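Mods, move this if it's the wrong board.
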Amino acid sequence: LFHHIAVVTHEFLQKSAAISNFMQSPTIPTLIALAHHTQQPIQHITAHADELLFVTDAQTMHQAQSIQQARIINNLITHQVHFHAPHSAMIDTNVTVGISTRISYGVHLTHGTSIGNHCIIEPFSIISNSTLGDNVHIKSHSVVHNSTINAHAI
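Not the wrong board. Structure tokens:
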């Protein structure tokens, strides 16, 4: 069983409530109509019923984030990225990692980072909005932000 889902931003929902001061639990058609009327972007996706999680509090938000992280990491493992401790890595959805790259404990890859093939990222490093060429070695506890590191760098 598949469901069609309309996705709007949290900011839109907050503004909608402030602008129209509408009821406690607005209906989905009301929100979609308001989004169209105010020219807000709406993304439409299709999802299997087993993959839907209704997020209403911090606990279910944490569950959703954990599911998303597991999917990202499993996808990378499928594409020959190696993890020392997959459960300890944090990787954003808009990150790319090349084949045979090794990611160690507690690594955090964020904000559009692109990592080449055969790289080594040592423990507790943070790489944000950066590009690493092939065969780059990032030492432990490094912070790389808004940078480009050419191939074969240590």
